[in-house]
Amino acid sequence: MGLVGWGAIGRVVGTALAEGGVPGAELVCVVDNRALGDAPAPQLSFEDALDHCDLIVEAAGQSVVREWGERVLQSGTDLLIASTGALTEENLAAALLAAGPGRVYFTGGAVGGLDLLQAVRSLGPLTDVTLTTTKLPSTLEQPWMGADLLHRMRTATGPVEVMRGTARDVPVKFPKSTNVAASVALAVGDLDAVRVRVVADPAAQHTRHVIEASGGHGVYRFEVQHLPDPDNPATSQVVPYAVLRSLGALAGRRGQIL
């Protein structure tokens, strides 16, 4: 496999693979637009990586999925996507799901319960799906924000709602912070059905995600709280380990919950 991105996620994933942490998965190269001196595998161009790998792991952001996703799959190489927020572009999502002969996979990232939501949607549509994400204000600041909103976030003494929308709208506005919204939508099967609230809270020592869903067949609620990654507080510390779990499943590790 090849790893795209040597940041907060890629370093943990790449180091674990190099140390044999996922039996059946061998790291043969790292792809990054910077010259790396500490990667545990050769640094190759994207084109060369496709010639050497059975699987590409994206850990570098939504732009990589947009630029390279379809080409990876067309080359016959499988693709594991961490930056699911790119899939809010319906044309891109359709192209990736239709492309081949490579296969596309998505990691659950910082939340659980997606496997159950994906299963129960076969019983009928979920009529009410909400996601509330709460993070430190500094991790949510974006170039598009106006002075008033930035001031409220920076001076807040309690929770401040930063944005309310659907899983189609929110990941575009927070490309490094709200991939979870797109992941929930992938599980539910409808970007517009998932209503999302993004909350800035200066007291949020943990990143918090609350998923609530209901339909004629049941009621579901999942809540997780994670420590932010110390090197990249916009992402949760658990995300690279979710990627490693996905790799273990793809490599045929026994005892996996699928």
Q: How would you describe this protein?
A:
- Residues 5-99 form the Aspartate/homoserine dehydrogenase NAD-binding domain.
- Belongs to the L-aspartate dehydrogenase family.
- This is Aspartate dehydrogenase.
- InterPro entries: Asp/hSer_DH_NAD-bd, Asp_DH, L-Asp_DH, NAD(P)-bd_dom_sf.
- The protein has 258 residues and is an alpha/beta fold.
- Helices cover 33% and strands 23% of the residues.
- The longest helix is centred in the N-terminal third of the chain and has 13 residues, at 62-74.
- It is globular and about 50 Å long.
- The chain starts with a strand and ends in an 8-residue tail after the last helix.
Keywords:
258 residues; alpha/beta; 5-stranded parallel beta sheet; 5-stranded mixed beta sheet; 10 strands; L-Asp_DH; Asp/hSer_DH_NAD-bd
At a glance:
The protein has helices at residues 8-18, 46-52, 62-74, 90-98, 114-120, 137-140, 147-154, 170-173, 179-188, 239-250; strands at 2-4, 29-31, 55-58, 78-81, 104-106, 126-135, 160-166, 194-200, 207-215, 218-226.
Fold blueprint:
Elements: E1 2-4, H1 8-18, E2 29-31, H2 46-52, E3 55-58, H3 62-74, E4 78-81, H4 90-98, E5 104-106, H5 114-120, E6 126-135, H6 137-140, H7 147-154, E7 160-166, H8 170-173, H9 179-188, E8 194-200, E9 207-215, E10 218-226, H10 239-250
Parallel strand pairs: 1-2, 1-3, 3-4, 4-5, 6-8
Antiparallel strand pairs: 6-9, 7-8, 9-10
Helix pairs in contact: 1-10, 5-9
